[in-house]
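Exercise 7. Given the encoded structure of a 459-residue chain, write a plausible sequence.
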C-alpha cells in the first residue's frame, strides 16, 4: 500500500510542483487549495503526512495543524513558511508539527525532510501498536490471539468481569484456562485484591478440606497451629479452582454450602467466617457427563456454571500460531534481543498443519526445544519428528445418510473407540506407543481411554 501525502497550498504552481516531485518518489499524492478542502479530504481518506503552507486565505495553516492533531494525531504534519515568518514556525512546532521548511527550498532538502517525517511517524505508529499489544496482553494476562474466536473470548471476558457471578472455564489441557481466570480477575473491580489458584487434583483427598477452608490447631494429626485456608487468603478477591471435576463428593457438598451461604468454618473450629470471594472454576472434563454418572453434584454444577467460557483448542485458531511462535521465540531467546528470531517457511507450515493435541503448551515446548538446538533460527530440522509426519485422513467409507437420519455423535464415538482399541492391539497394550500411532500425546490418549472407560490406570 502506497504512502499517502496531502499537499495543501493556495498557490497552484506550488501544489503542482510538490505533487509531481512526490509522485516521482513513489508516494500517492492528493492536493487541496485550502485548509477547508484539506479537512474535507481528510474526512474520507487517511493520510500519512500533510504538507501545508502556513499563510492561506480563510483558515490558516496553524489552525489546520491544530485540527489535524485533534482529528488524526497519528498523521505527520510538515509546514511550509516564508523565511520571515519564524514565529509562526515555532508556534507550529509547539502544536505538534514534525518540522518546517522555509521558501525557497531545495528539492533534495524537501525530499529528505519528507523521508525523515515519514520514518518518525512510522516508528511512532509501530510503538503505539506495540504498546497497545502489551496493554492487551497485560490486561488479558498474556493470552495471545487475534483470531475471531479469541476476539470473541476477550469480549466475553470483559463482559463477565464486571459481574460477581461464578464462572466455569472449560477447554482441553494446555489451552490457557488459568490465564483466562486471571484475566477475569484483572479486568474486574477485585483486581486490587488477591488472586488465589489451586489445582483440586493435585491435593490429597484427606487434606483438601483443610486446604480450602483452613483448620484449627489440634483438629487432626499434624495440625500444630491455626491455619487459614484458600477462601480466607482470597478474601475480597478471586478464588480459582482448577480441575474442579476432581473434587470429592463430600467436598462438593461443603463447597455448595459456602457458595449458597457465603460463609464457612475452619476444620475443627466453631467460628463461622464470611466468604467474600469471586469463584472461577475450570475443568478439561465433561462435567455434564460427570453429573449423569453421579460423580459430580448437579446443583453444584449449575451454581458454578452461571457463566461459561470455552477456551478454543489451538487447531481451531491456527491463524494465531505465527503470533504465538513470535512470542515464544522472544521468551526463549538466549540474548533477549528485540529483533525477532526468523522461522523457515517449512517450519511454520509444519506448525500450522499439526493438530497440537497438547495445545499451546505443546507449541511452547516445540519452540523451546528448537531454540535450545539452534538459538538463531526455528527450522524443520529442530522440530519434533511428529510435526513433520504428514498423516493422511482416514475415511470411514462413503458418506451416505439414510432417509431417517443417523446418530452422528454415537457413530463418531464408536469409530474413535475402535481406533483406540486397534492401536492398543497393535502395540500390545503399550499406551504411549499407541498414542504415538494415532498422533496423540500419552496424556491425550489416556484422556480418551478414560472417556470410554477403557483406562486400567497402568502405564
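Solution.
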Amino acid at each position: 500500500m502506497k504512502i499517502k501525502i496531502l499537499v495543501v497550498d493556495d498557490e497552484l504552481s506550488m501544489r503542482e510542483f510538490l505533487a509531481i516531485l512526490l509522485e516521482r518518489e513513489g508516494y500517492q499524492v492528493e492536493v487541496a487549495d485550502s485548509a477547508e478542502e484539506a479537512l474535507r479530504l481528510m474526512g474520507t481518506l487517511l493520510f500519512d503526512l500533510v504538507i501545508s503552507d502556513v499563510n492561506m486565505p480563510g483558515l490558516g495553516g496553524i489552525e489546520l495543524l491544530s485540527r489535524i492533531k485533534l482529528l488524526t494525531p497519528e498523521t505527520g504534519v510538515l509546514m511550509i513558511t516564508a523565511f520571515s515568518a519564524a514565529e509562526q514556525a515555532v508556534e507550529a512546532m509547539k502544536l505538534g508539527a514534525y518540522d518546517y521548511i522555509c521558501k525557497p527550498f531545495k528539492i533534495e532538502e524537501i525530499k529528505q525532510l519528507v523521508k525523515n517525517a515519514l520514518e518518525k511517524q512510522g516508528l511512532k505508529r509501530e510503538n503505539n501498536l506495540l504498546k497497545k499489544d502489551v496493554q492487551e496482553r497485560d490486561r488479558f494476562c498474556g493470552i495471545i490471539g487475534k483470531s475471531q474466536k479469541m476476539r470473541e473470548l476477550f469480549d466475553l471476558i470483559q463482559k463477565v468481569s464486571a459481574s460477581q457471578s461464578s464462572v466455569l472455564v472449560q477447554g482441553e489441557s494446555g489451552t490457557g484456562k488459568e490465564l483466562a481466570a486471571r484475566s477475569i480477575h484483572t479486568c474486574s473491580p477485585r483486581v486490587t485484591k488477591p488472586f488465589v489458584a489451586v489445582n483440586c487434583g493435585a491435593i490429597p483427598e484427606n487434606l483438601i478440606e483443610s486446604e480450602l477452608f483452613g483448620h484449627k490447631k489440634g483438629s487432626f494429626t499434624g495440625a500444630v497451629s491455626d491455619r487459614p485456608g484458600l477462601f480466607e487468603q482470597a478474601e475480597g478477591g478471586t478464588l480459582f479452582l482448577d480441575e474442579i471435576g476432581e473434587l470429592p463428593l463430600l467436598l462438593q457438598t461443603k463447597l455448595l454450602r459456602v457458595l449458597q451461604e457465603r460463609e464457612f468454618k475452619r476444620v475443627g473450629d466453631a467460628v463461622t467466617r464470611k466468604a467474600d470471594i469471586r469463584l472461577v472454576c475450570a475443568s478439561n472434563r465433561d462435567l455434564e457427563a460427570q453429573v449423569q454418572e453421579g460423580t459430580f453434584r448437579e446443583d453444584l454444577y449449575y451454581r458454578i456454571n452461571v457463566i461459561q467460557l470455552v477456551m478454543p483448542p489451538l487447531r481451531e485458531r491456527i491463524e494465531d500460531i505465527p503470533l504465538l511462535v513470535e512470542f515464544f521465540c522472544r521468551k526463549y531467546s538466549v540474548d533477549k534481543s528485540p529483533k525477532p528470531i526468523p522461522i523457515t517457511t517449512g517450519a511454520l507450515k509444519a506448525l500450522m498443519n499439526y493438530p497440537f493435541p497438547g495445545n499451546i503448551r505443546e507449541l511452547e515446548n516445540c519452540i523451546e526445544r528448537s531454540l535450545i538446538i539452534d538459538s538463531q533460527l526455528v527450522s524443520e530440522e529442530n522440530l519434533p519428528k511428529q510435526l513433520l509426519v504428514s498423516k493422511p485422513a482416514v475415511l470411514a467409507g462413503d458418506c451416505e445418510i439414510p432417509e431417517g437420519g443417523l446418530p452422528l455423535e454415537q457413530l463418531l464415538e464408536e469409530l474413535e473407540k475402535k481406533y483406540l482399541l486397534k492401536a492398543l492391539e497393535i502395540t500390545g497394550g503399550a499406551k504411549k506407543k499407541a498414542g504415538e500411532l494415532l498422533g496423540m500425546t500419552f496424556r491425550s490418549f489416556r484422556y480418551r481411554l478414560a472417556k470410554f472407560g477403557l483406562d486400567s490406570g497402568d502405564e
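Remark. The radius of gyration is 31 Å. Students should compare their own answers with the one above.
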